[in-house]
Amino acid sequence: MKPDVYISKKLSYALRHNPDKYGLQLDQYGYTDLSQLLAAFNRVHHFNPPLTQARIEQVMAHANKERFRIKDGKICALYGHSIPGIISHHQATPPAVLYHGTARRFMPSIKKLGLLPMKRQYVHLSTDVPMATEVGRRHDNRPVILQINTKQAVADGIKFYVGNGRVWLCDELPPRYIQFPN
Ligand code: HQG
Q1: Ligand 1 pocket: which of 106, 111, 119, 169 to mutate (most atoms <8 Å of CB)?
Q2: Distance (Å, rounded) from C-alpha 117 to C-alpha 133?
Q3: Nearest to 68 by CA among 83, 53, 82
């Protein structure tokens, strides 16, 4: 695994799924103190040379997705959380249409139940088809791209939250807002 990917995966694990492992606590927005995270990462993973803020910023700058944010000496994951205790994200009005890339084998269940957060806190949606395709490929080499009628969902009171510029989050999404390909 490339060093950048290794650092990114460890950060995702700590900030989305298991801050406890590093003795870290997330605030309600998912932020934790960056110097505490660096100390814990260097203690647990023995990075050589030691991991620094500058190295994390380099990983973030070179990444294919905007996964983390650093602000005022703190760092958070922008989406993807599974920890108990819901993380608050900024609520906003999404584009009229969003996309979700998923696996063919999930279709019967999604047609029946709609999109559910599954192991995460929110359903994740993409602003564009290439992004949805990339997300879907993690589950299926020929992913299905679902088109989401967010305009109607917003009109019906479903709340959407900002992940990053290409990722939106929402609570469960009933099948009536999902356009299934033939
Ligand atoms: C599916 C990555 C059966 C859902 C990505 C998905 C994303 C259902 C899978 C972010 C279902 C969950 C999240 C239902 C939903 N029945 N299956 N009713 N409802 N599903 O990984 O959206 O690279 O938790 O379609 O880029 O694939 O890690 O969610 O296939 O932005 O930064 O259950 O994670 O970002 O899979 O991906 P996931 P996701 P990173």
Answers
A1: 106
A2: 18
A3: 53
Q: β-strand 160-162 against 144-149: which pairing, if any? A: unpaired
Measured in Å, residue 77 CA sits from the centre of ligand 1 at 16
pLDDT digits (tens, 9 = 90+) for 63-108: 999 999 999 999 999 999 999 888 999 999 999 999 999 999 999 9
Q: Are 170 and 122 in contact (CB under 8 A)?
A: yes
Ligand 1: distance of its center to the CA of 147 in Å? 15
Ligand 1 atom nearest residue 114's Cα:
18
Q: Which helix (H) or strand (E) holds 33?
A: strand 32-33
Amino acid at 122: Y
Burial of 70: CB neighbours in 10 Å, binned 0-12, 13-18, 19+:
middle
Comparing CA positions, the residue from 162, 165, 131, 166 lying closest to residue 145 is 131
Q: What is the pLDDT of residues 38-55, one digit of tens each?
A: 999 999 999 999 999 999
Rg, Å, the chain Cα set: 17
